[in-house]
Design a protein that fits this description.
alpha/beta, globular
Length: about 260
């Protein structure tokens, strides 16, 4: 009964958020058509606002460690769930990179497109084109978020960070912001949060909204700058080492976390 009440209450909040976000995205689309201007910085700021309120609708208690980068950077994070996107996007205006399948998700796919998401088609050989777009975004001082593992995991392990999309960072000599994210429940890694395998968005939402609140730790690690003669794969390995080392050292929270000022 309690789980059912949780699901109903949180679903209503999520529907309110979705309605408001659709209206905001529609208004932004109309503004762009009328002004004939891309308004990318405004798009990023509005996206951050929407994601901030989405995080408030989700049963997640968040701790943020470290400091937001003081310069435009490409964020590289391990990837556990679709929840990673609003959690990180609520911290700073970001452009997102996502697998092409997300574009087909009902409503969520349209919202992602309106937020300026760059969609990546696996195996389509479009890495050069996406890499050029990343470089262009960085050149125009728009930060981006990339999940270099290329897929989600259950949160207990870290896959190889692929460097094929990091050419723009090398060319623009921009910083990389490594991020380690972990979900906790009952003193252990939260496997319910993982969005893997045959999971679909609605099933995952039902599971997440029915459960008690989980705890999330987000670690913003020290910035990495490309080294002289360093190629994109070497930079990716360095970022992977930073994130992996952080995750290995993490221990389950032993006390009730305080809401971070960055996400409250």
């Amino acid at each position: 009964m309690i789980a059912h009440l949780r699901l109903i209450g949180r679903s209503l909040l999520l529907l309110l958020w979705l309605s408001a976000s659709l209206l905001l995205a529609g208004a932004l689309k109309l503004l762009q058509v009328l002004s004939r201007q891309p308004a990318e910085h405004l798009r990023q700021r509005l996206s951050r606002l929407c994601l901030h309120w989405l995080v408030r609708c989700l049963p997640l208690r968040v701790r943020v460690h470290g400091h937001l980068p003081g310069q435009t950077a490409l964020w590289l994070s391990n990837h556990v769930s679709w929840c990673d996107i609003p959690l990180l996007g609520a911290l700073q205006p970001l452009t997102f990179l996502s697998k092409a399948e997300v574009r087909t998700w009902p409503l969520a796919g349209w919202l992602a497109a309106q937020a300026g998401t760059l969609f990546i088609q696996r195996g389509a050989g479009d890495s050069n084109d996406i890499g050029a777009q990343i470089g262009q975004q960085l050149q125009e001082d728009r930060a981006l978020l990339l999940f270099p593992e290329g897929t989600t995991t259950d949160g207990q392990s870290l896959r190889t960070f692929h460097g094929r999309l990091l050419s723009g960072v090398i060319e623009q000599q921009r910083a990389v912001q490594p991020v380690a994210i972990r979900y906790w429940r009952d003193g252990a890694v939260d496997l319910q949060a993982a969005f893997i395998g045959d999971d679909d968005l609605l099933s995952h939402l039902r599971r997440l909204l029915s459960a008690p609140a989980a705890e999330v730790e987000i670690h913003l690690l020290p910035l990495l700058l490309p080294l002289p003669e360093e190629n994109r794969n070497q930079l990716a390995r360095r970022a992977q080492h930073c994130v992996g080392d952080c995750l290995e050292r993490l221990r389950a929270p032993s006390a009730e976390p305080q809401a971070s000022a960055l996400t409250s």
